Amino acid sequence: MDERVRELLERVKSTAVDLGEAAGTTARSAGKYAGQMVDIAKLNMRIFDLKNDVNDLLRDVGQMVYDTHQGKEPSEGGMDALLTQLDEKHAAIGEVKERIAVLRNAKECPSCGNMCGRDDHFCKECGAQL
What we know:
Layout: H1 3-69, H2 78-104, E1 106-108, E2 115-117
Antiparallel strand pairs: 1-2
């Protein structure tokens, strides 16, 4: 076989191998990103469920307040238990939001709640120091 043809075939082979490796790397990156998006979606659903729980607890607190206003005797320790559960739900929401921020490589602005880059020093939305 002619030496120039052999060189050409070797270059084609080398290019094909490099292209295959690049395609594999891209596919792995895309798979990892898709997995992160699925995890974030699941965490957002968890936040949705926790917020529904918070709304139910707030409705119960409101009912207790109204019942007290109407002269009904509140149950012993009922309000304290509801408020404790509310605190726990809000803490759980905060933890889930932090896990989402870690997956997105971001952090939440303490002033406005906007998501900012992990290395940002100021919020892009409100200008608050992070």
